[in-house]
Amino acid sequence: MLKFIRIDMTAKKVTVEETPEKYLALGGRALTSQFILDEVPAECHPLGAKNKLIITPGLLSGTNAPSSGRLSIGGKSPLTGGIKEANAGGITSQKIANLGIKAIVIEGMADSGTYIARVTADNVELIPADDLAGKGTYELTSILLERYNPKAGIICIGPAGEMKMLSAGITNNDMEGNSSRYAGRGGLGAVMGSKGLKAIVVEADKTFDAPVKDKERFKAAAKKFAQILIQHPVSGDGLPKYGTNVLMNIINEAGGLPTRNFSTGRFDAANEVGGEKLAEVATARGGKATHACHPGCVIRCSNVYPMPDGKVCSPIEYETAWGFGPNLDISDLDVVAKLNYICNDVGLDTIEVAGTLGVLMEAGALQFGDGQGAITALEEVAKGTPLGRIIGAGAAVAGKVYGVTRVPTVKGQSIPAYDPRSVRGNGVTYATTTMGADHTAGYAVTANILKVGGFVDPTKDGGQIELSRNLQIATAAVDATGLCLFVAFAVLDNPEGLPTIVEMLNAQYGTELTVDDVTALGQQILKNEREFNAKAGFTKADDRLPEFFYEEELAPHNTKFDLKEKLDEVFNF
Predict the structure, then answer these.
(1) Is the dihedral of CA 428, 430, 432, 433 positive or negative?
(2) CB 462 within 8 A of CB 8
(3) Cβ proximity of 166 and 187 under 8 Å
(4) What is the mean pLDDT of each run of 10 residues along the chain (573 residues)?
């Protein structure tokens, strides 16, 4: 039996059920979005008792399928007001899958106090933990690993989640115990905090022993898929060598690197915060230029960056380096790392915080290029001061508070590290995805910049709608499997990629799925999410970029974003 665990925070009651029939074939984002559509009233307050948080591994998680350890967390987003799935690496997804658990659902709301949940092979218990209230995620994780099991997976929130800040994320630890693998986007940490749950301790001795019906067939398919990933120039060379931050110089050269709050597309000092520089500094200080975020990852695009104060920030992803670097006119990697570390500890989404600081600099409340000023301001979050709460509330709120019109958000969520005027496929995704501006929802950088899976001119409108549509469908399906999104580079270029994923699924579950079934799964996920958002009040008007992207030209290509009504064709399937 696959267990379906419900933790009722109102009644302080744990129920372990058999997984409902309709959820057996679902995992990851497919399960979170179906469940939220089924059980969460779309019009409910996201920080109220009617919202629910669902945590689930992907369909392939817990096996030795390469790079398949992503953890999906779903709920109604307090940041966007719509449906949300955020996923993360770390060690917890594989542990949950190896315990035979399909999902952990957090529902209701504690009237007072702080709690943790402890999940083992034989038991699930809710434990009062007022002594842990207000702890940063690094200290909290260290305490729980020592208190319960040094090999446990710790899913937790920081003070920002406890204070129900709209950009609070949920983290879990990597293999070294660092609490830095975030399901960061959309404010789901605030949902967890609203329920009074500080952490979930997941104890499992096994990592790759989830049930597989045909082990030999699965082993062969997994081995083939690993080779497909390793042999691709992006997933097998570029990402393992310099991490995701290898993109810094590439996007800068392409003229799509948002600089000074999306004022221009190039940053003169991009190389100072890019992947090559990061690898050089990290290695010189005894860190790592390449690192796996979960067991069984063959891409290894993470890193370990030792900071001057002796602490370690792991990882510094491209989007974070961009957000605290060019976006704020900062060219000091140590400042970027410090801002990243504070976000990890207090429990905030780095992309949202970067967008918010950019808006504050646009307003003159901080100065562009003032790294120490940004650090000092961010430290206000843990104190819960008015400025700290504005930063924790996200860019859209900060823009309203300070009267700023150039606020780069869609559906209330900050736009990440690719300017939509010069990477237009991503612009289509930002505008239309159910998640609010999210580069991972349909990563058109593939064909726009990297020429993976073909080429679509990033500064022209032609082909962008179809590109984003196909990528959004494919991404939704990948998010259901627990595979890292970066497998897409190889899958898009190698015609045997997707059939091999299907082969792994069929070997694991004894099914007879086809490639068309996977496409249909991606479409159904998007339809479910669109249905929820429509019930929550979203309309076509929400599928648009902010006004200034249509009116201001972006250097160096002097491009504007022109697509409006055509955006309504993205979901014509």
Answers:
(1) positive
(2) no
(3) yes
(4) 96 97 97 98 98 98 97 98 97 98 98 98 97 98 98 98 98 94 97 98 96 97 97 92 94 98 98 97 96 93 96 96 98 98 98 98 98 98 98 98 98 98 98 98 97 96 97 97 95 95 97 96 98 98 98 98 97 95
**Do residues 79 and 186 touch, judged by C-beta distance below 8 A?**
yes
* Residue 234 φ/ψ region, left for φ over 0, alpha for ψ in the -120 to 50 degree band, beta for the rest: alpha
Kindly state the tokens that stand for 557. Answer: 């290509």
DSSP letter at 335?
H
Contact between residue 106 and residue 32 where contact means Cβ atoms under 8 Å apart: no
CA distances from residue 422 to 103, 542, 552 in whole angstroms, order as listed: 40, 21, 12
pLDDT score at 373: 98
For residue 17, the cross-strand partners are 4
Q: Determine the Cα–Cα distance for residues 217 and 66; give it in Å rounded to an integer.
A: 15
Query: What whole-number distance in Å separates Cα of residue 105 and Cα of residue 400?
Result: 34
Question: Any idea which residue has 């590290």 for tokens?
Answer: 417
Q: Dihedral sign for Cα 499, 503, 504, 506, please.
A: positive
Determine how β-strand 3-8 pairs with β-strand 101-107: parallel
pLDDT (0 to 100) of residue 238: 87
CA separation for the pair 264, 555 (Å, rounded): 5
**What's the 3-state SS for 198-254?**
EEEEECCCCCCCCCCCCHHHHHHHHHHHHHHHHCCCHHHHHHHHHCHHHHHHHHHHC
Which of the 8 DSSP states describes residue 446? I
HEC-encoded secondary structure of 140-171: HHHHHHHHCCCCCEEEECCHHHHCCCCCECEE
Q: Please choose, from the candidates 158, 230, 146, the residue with its C-alpha nearest in 3D space to the C-alpha of residue 190.
A: 158
> Residue 1 class from Cβ within 10 Å (0-12 exposed, 13-18 middle, 19+ buried)?
exposed
Euclidean distance between CA atoms 492 and 446, whole angstroms: 9
Whether the upstream peptide bond of residue 556 has omega within 30° of 0, thus cis, is: yes
The confidence score (pLDDT) of residue 1 equals 80
Residue pair 352/397 in contact (Cβ under 8 Å)? The answer is no
CA pair distance 302, 478, nearest whole angstrom: 20
To the nearest 10°, report the CA torsion of 500, 506, 511, 517: -30
Residue 288 tokens, joined: 């790592």
Q: From 352, 333, 320, select the one nearest 276 (Cα to Cα).
A: 333
